[in-house]
C-alpha cells in the first residue's frame, strides 16, 4: 500500500496546484482522471476517472482504494459530466471505509473562501452555469446552484461536513490554498518537503479558465 494522501476538497479549490506540488515532491498523483502513458503506475485503469475507481472498489470489495494503490496521492476525486456525477468527497460511507481500512492514509481538504470559489466555478467552462445546477450533486440538488449564493452555501456546507466527521482526527488537514503558510502546513502534515508551490491552472481573465 503506497497511497499517502487523499484530497477531499471541491473542484477549483486548488486541486491542480496540490497535484503539481506533490508531483514535484516525487509523489505519483492521480488528478481527476488516470492519465495514460508509459509512466502510469496503473495502466489497467488508464483513461478512467478516479471517482469511478473509488466507487468500483467501495461497492465491489468494500475497499475504495483497491485499484489505486499504485498512486501516492489523489488530488481531485470528483467527476461531473454528461454521463457521470460522482462525488466521493461528500460520501461518508466511502470516506469512513478508507479511514477504517487504511489508517496510514492522510486526508487534506483544499479550501478557498466560499464566495470566491463559487465565482471561480462560474468562470470554469460550464461548471457553474450548467453542470452543477443540472447535475444533482450531493448537497446541491438539480435546480440549485445557478446563483453564486447557492453555490457558496453548498461549498460552505461541504467543508462543515468534513470538519465535523474529522473532528479531533490528526489525519485530516483543511488548508487555505491562498494562505502563505499552506505549503508549510501540507509539508508538515504529510511529512515531506514541497519544492514547489504556486498557482496552477489560474484564471487569466474573466473568460479564462479558473484556478483549479
Topology of helices and strands:
Elements: E1 5-7, H1 15-24, E2 29-31, H2 50-60, E3 73-76, E4 79-80, E5 85-86, H3 92-101, E6 106-111, H4 114-123, H5 127-135, H6 148-165, E7 172-176, H7 182-190
Parallel strand pairs: 1-3, 1-6, 2-3, 6-7
Antiparallel strand pairs: 4-5
| Total individual domains | 1
CATH class wording: Alpha Beta
Distance between the amino and carboxyl termini: 28 Å
What's the count of strands?
7
Q: What sort of overall outline do the alpha carbons produce when their principal axes are compared?
A: globular
State which percent range the strand residues make up.
Answer: 5-15%
Show unreliable segments: 205-212
Gyration radius (Cα, Å) is 16 Å
Major pleated sheet:
5 strands, parallel
CATH-defined topology: Rossmann fold
- Calculate the mean pLDDT score and round it: 92
The helix/strand series, from N terminus to C terminus, equals: EHEHEEEHEHHHEH
DSSP helical segment count = 7
CATH architecture annotation: 3-Layer(aba) Sandwich
**Roughly what percent helix?**
25-40%
In which order are the strands of the major sheet placed? Answer: 2-3-1-6-7
What would you say this structure looks like, in words?
It is built from 7 helices and 7 strands; from the N terminus they run βαβαβββαβαααβα. The protein has 212 residues and is α/β, with parallel strands linked by helices. It has one domain: Rossmann fold (3-Layer(aba) Sandwich), CATH 3.40.50. It has a 5-stranded parallel beta sheet, with helices on both faces. Strands 4-5 form a two-stranded antiparallel sheet. A hairpin with a 4-residue loop joins strand 4 (79-80) and strand 5. The chain is globular. The chain starts with a strand and ends in a 22-residue tail after the last helix. Residues 205-212 have low confidence and may be disordered.
